[in-house]
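Colleagues,

For the teaching module next term, I've prepared a clean inverse folding example: a structure given as tokens, and then the sequence designed for it. I'd like students to try predicting residues themselves before seeing the answer, so please don't circulate the second half yet.
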């Protein structure tokens, strides 16, 4: 659901998908969940699926250089584990 309050517009950034048509996909690797997410055709001015990047160090340098808020990092080969953090770098 999207809300608009005065001149403030809202964009929903979608990083992951956990269920599709009632099917739990949390146990499939992130690269497969990204493929599923891309197939859902969610692009619009209010919904956006960000690109995936392979060079995390270069991405972080760009984020810092442009003073952006941050990044969401997920390992491509890992399932979604609620409440858990891989912790490896």
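(Answer key — instructors only)
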């Amino acid at each position: 659901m999207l809300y608009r309050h005065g001149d403030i517009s809202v964009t929903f950034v979608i990083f992951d998908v956990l269920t599709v048509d009632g099917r739990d996909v949390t146990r499939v690797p992130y690269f497969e969940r990204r493929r599923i997410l891309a197939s859902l055709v969610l692009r619009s001015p209010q919904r956006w699926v960000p690109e995936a990047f392979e060079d995390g160090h270069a991405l972080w340098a760009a984020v810092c250089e442009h003073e952006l808020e941050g990044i969401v990092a997920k390992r491509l080969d890992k399932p979604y584990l609620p409440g858990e953090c891989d912790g490896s770098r």
